[in-house]
Amino acid sequence: MEKRSKLELSGFRGKVLASVQLVPRGRVTTYGELARFLGCPKAARVIGQALKRNPRLERIPCHRVVRADGSLGGYVAGLERKKNLLIKEGVKIRGNKIVNFKKFLFQFGC
DNA sequence: TCATTGGCTATCA
DNA sequence: CTGATAGCCAATG
Q1: Which pLDDT tens digit goes with each residue over A33-88?
Q2: A29 touches strand B (CB under 7 A)
Q3: Which of A25, A33, A34, A42 has the greatest number of CB atoms lying within 10 Å of its CB?
């Protein structure tokens, strides 16, 4: 085992954070897709934990991560904040869900 | 070991 | 279509 910097996080969290950073602006991903990409499709909940436990909120675009059905899910800084950011990126939102969500969905390995 | 969690799927109104 | 509800499952602390 190599020694890791303090900024490096343990397995799952680190993977999640790294993967989220791969999501370009104007696109969104889901916890489930992330989990599947990491190899644990059922670990979607842990993805959320990792995102909320991120080392730096500004560094991780957690606002680009939403639920599988397009609902915003949750956000440390408040759902309104997340909504606002997504709209700013060009995502249309109705209520607490994304319109044409699949259209903005970013898939890993594709 | 237990409790917690920013979820997922399925089902119903 | 939207929303509300019920089980499930896996990592973190």
Answers
A1: 999 999 999 999 999 999 999 888 889 999 999 999 999 999 999 999 999 999 99
A2: no
A3: A34
Domain ranges of chain A: 11-104
What is the model's pTM? Answer: 0.91
* C-alpha torsion sign, points A17, A46, A40, A62: negative
3-state secondary structure A40-99: CCCCHHHHHHHHHCCCCCCCCCHHHEECCCCECCCCCCCHHHHHHHHHHCCCCEECCEEC
User: From the C1' of C10, which residue's alpha carbon is nearest?
Assistant: A43
The reply to whether the CB atom of residue A53 sits less than 7 A from any atom in nucleic acid chain C is yes
Q: How many angstroms separate the CA of A19 from the C1' of B4?
A: 24
